[in-house]
């Protein structure tokens, strides 16, 4: 809208209205297969291997504690959640421009204005613009050199603002099992009680269960044979 008014300063006002946001969440699972310095190699859940250079400022929540890439270990399971927020911003800018008509080209819908700093600037008047002269609606053909005008320019624009946040949580591998200490078990076998041995000072009152009378009978038999042989020899001597 362009209207005639009093001489004054240029003003501009901008308002922003935010539309309804949309959210998109992506979750990726991976396992740490190698880490050295800021280099991190991950094995994704689809089997692919991905190499990343992770800055020191990035944090990982492992077992409830925030750690850096330097504290990760092979075998750590990671889950990355990426949330993308998209919101339309409707921007309305209202600029009030005041100046003096220096030249008009009505066929091209162009007007040249002398601004407050005495510089000349050309402006294209859109077909839908409304011109008010003396409170009456007019066209660009009604503009004349030397007229003081006030132009109110309204601009509507839409910007899409995207915000992305990510978080990585994980679980460190369990520490290796500590081998159990084997106790030394000692088994003691009691010694058998020593057998009773007869001494010369105190002969045994009884024979052991293994003793028999066979040796004594053999000795008596031998004495009988010897006696019989001796008596036979004496008889032969006397008979002669």
Alpha-carbon Rg, integer: 61 Å
Low-confidence stretches: 1-9, 182-188, 196-200
- Bulk shape: rod-shaped
How many beta-strand elements? Answer: 13
Alpha-carbon distance between the two ends: 191 Å
What is the string of SSEs from the N terminus onward?
A: EEEEEEEEEEEEEH
| Discrete helix count | 1
General description of the model:
- The protein is mainly beta and 240 residues long.
- Among the domains are: 2-18 and 89-161, no CATH class; 23-87, OB fold (Dihydrolipoamide Acetyltransferase, E2P) (Beta Barrel).
- It is 11% helix and 46% strand.
- The protein contains one helix and 13 strands.
- It has one helix at residues 214-239, and strands spanning 2-3, 11-18, 22-36, 39-44, 49-53, 60-62, 65-67, 77-105, 110-114, 120-124, 131-133, 136-138, 148-171.
- Strands 1, 2, 3, 4, 5, 6, 7, 8, 9, 10, 11, 12 and 13 form a 13-stranded mixed beta sheet that branches.
- Strand 6 (60-62) and strand 7 (65-67) form a beta hairpin.
- The N and C termini lie far apart (191 Å).
- Mean pLDDT is 77; it is low at 1-9, 182-188 and 196-200.
Chain-wise SSE layout:
Elements: E1 2-3, E2 11-18, E3 22-36, E4 39-44, E5 49-53, E6 60-62, E7 65-67, E8 77-105, E9 110-114, E10 120-124, E11 131-133, E12 136-138, E13 148-171, H1 214-239
